[in-house]
Amino acid sequence: xxxxxxxxxxxxxxxxxxxxxxxxxxxxxxxxxxxxxxxxxxxxxxxxxxxxxxxxxxxxxxxxxxxxxxxxxxxxxxxxxxxxxxxxxxxxxxxxxxxxxxxxxxxxxxxxx
Length: 113
Description:
alpha+beta
């Protein structure tokens, strides 16, 4: 048990409630089609959450994904970028270099803890 706590990712679990604060998580479902990414959760038309181990821009493929975005570092819970995509086809920008959580949600839906 103690060995598991020494793995780098073990601290991420404690940050999950902070990262998801303010999101309507009750009806989330797995999503592999709204963005070019291996892992995602969504509520169609309300929000999309994507995790990428090495970060980098995320191409959105679903026109119903909200334009506003927040990019977080899951190791610290720190918000590293916020903004609004201009067009539905625009990617969520991120230079990469570390794990990232991307949230696309309408303004006011997500207030990181």
